Structure formats: C-alpha cells, structure tokens
Amino acid sequence: MRRIAALLVALLPLAATAQDAPWPELQLSREYVVDGIPGGNLSGLAWCGDALWTVSDREDDRVYRLHPGDGVMRAEAEVFQVEPPPDSGLPWGQRMRTWLTGKARGGQLDFEGLTCDSAGNRYLVSESRATVLHLPPGGSPRWLALPENLVRQARASGMLVTFNAMFEGIAVDPEGERLWLAAERERRGLLVLHKQQTAWSCTGGCVLYSEGGTEPAPAALGGKELSRDFSDLAFHAGKLFTLERQAHRLCRRKTADATVERCWSYAAEALTDARRYPVDYGSAEALWLDDEGAWIGVDNGNHRRGDGENRPIVWRFAAPAGGWSAP
C-alpha cells in the first residue's frame, strides 16, 4: 500500500505538468489579411461546402464567405434575420451587463464561434446569451432547443460566472449529432450535447471537463501568469482540438473526458516582431482543422501589430509530421 501511495505521489507532478510540456512548433504555410469585415473582431472559422467562412462578434446579422487571393482574403457577407434568442437561464444582472456592453461596442449577440457539419449546416454560439444559432444551407436561421439545465450545470462547475468569459468556442461532429461548447476562462471547460430529434439533451450530464488556475504566457510576452483559457474548439478525426490562446497552442483531447493527448505550439510564428501586438495576452480566436493543416484566425481587437497591419489575420499552418492523429 505504501509503495502504491508513493508511486501516486511521484506521478502527480507529471500529471500536473504534462500540459505545460515543450510541445513541437507548427510551421506556418501561409498568412492572409482579411478585407471586408468593417467591424473587425474575427471570432470563428469553419470550412462549409467549398469555402472557408468566418463570423465577427460585432455583427449580429451576417457571416462571411472568405475568398483567398495573393496574401489577402476578401470577405463576402451573407446577411440573415434572426428572432430574439430564448432565455438560457443566465442571471438577470449578467444579461443586463452584456446588453449594455453590446449597445456600446456593437454585437448584442456576441457570436464567438462558428462550426459546420457535413450537410453544410452552420452553428454560431452566442457568448452574451449562452445559446446557439443554427443556419441551414437553404432555410431560415433558428435557435437550437438546448437543455434548460445547461447553464445551471456549467455554473455549478464554476463556469459562466465571470463577465465576458462565457461560451467562446463550438464544434459539431460531421453527422450533426453531437455538439460541444467551450467555456472561455475562470473556469474554463467543455460541455457536450446530444441531438434527440429536434432538441438537444445532456446524456449523463452536460459538463465534460472543467479546470481553473493560471499558467505563464510565453516568454516573448513577458511570462505573466494568465488564466487558462479556451478561445475555440474543433472536431476532427474523432478527436476534440482546443485552441488555447494564452499559451499559444492547440491541443488534441479525448472526446470521452477531454484528457489532453498531445499539443502543438504556434508561438514561434505568432510572436515574431512583425506579428506581435502591443498586448501581453494571446489574440487567436478561431480554429478549423483538416488533414492537411489548421486554420487559425486572429482577432486583433483594433490593435496594430509590429508591421503596422490592423486588419484581422488568418494563418494556415501545416499539419505536423505524422498528421493530427500521431502519438
């Protein structure tokens, strides 16, 4: 018994630091500036059909199809009309604060993530309302019927309690049968929903994973301790991939319990003098993966980076050696 206890104690530091290992660096294949999003603030990416799409958290009535050119992606707006969202169970005070913020800066719905299934259905997560909008390829948008206890379960696990730190990412499986939501920070976490005919339910509970604490930013940003966070989420080849903005990495996780299997850093490319912004936190907000690589979208927040560019940025990183499923 003592030997077992000693072994467990010895393994604890390894478990605690596994996520902070010096993960391999991804290689940047292409960089694009994005033209045609007046409000900036790119906050989601998804490949739907034959094109890459994006959304801005400052605009409540449109998504953008991206047309890549020579170093520039031209954004073409697709406008829609949406009914008021249902009550998700957020406290009144939190709803009022987000309403006032939306009035001041634009974007009452604060769309913070975009995903797509194999049928071309697009899903947008609203941070301010803690709910999801469904955009079918040939029909009218509608709000998903999410479980009434979704927000309550998340808050009971310590998530969705900090202003402007709500649902920040969304992913769906190709069949459109499972949906994951990422809570941003303080505490960060992942929730999973299963489709039951026209509604969604939590099978065995909504909360898949919840984590608090801080970790140091990369040395190039001063190494300041920042809250662990998720800024987007993707589903690829049977795994979840989390974009972890403050740490400048993306991680592959098990769908069963969100355990980290492997991570890759993009800090070396993102934090060159030319690409760095005058802030001490990360700016990557959007993630989409395919077999050949990763698309990462940068929300510059109206800041100019080192080379003077102040438009949103989309990076194309090559897949690592052995692919995203490599051990």
Automatic annotation (TrEMBL):
Protein name: Esterase-like activity of phytase family protein
Keyword Lipid biosynthesis: no
Top-rank taxon: Bacteria
Classification via InterPro entries: 6-blade_b-propeller_TolB-like, Phytase-like_dom
Domain Phytase-like: 39-187
Keywords linked to the UniProt accession: Signal
Lineage: Bacteria, Pseudomonadati, Pseudomonadota, Gammaproteobacteria, Pseudomonadales
Signal sequence annotation: 1-18
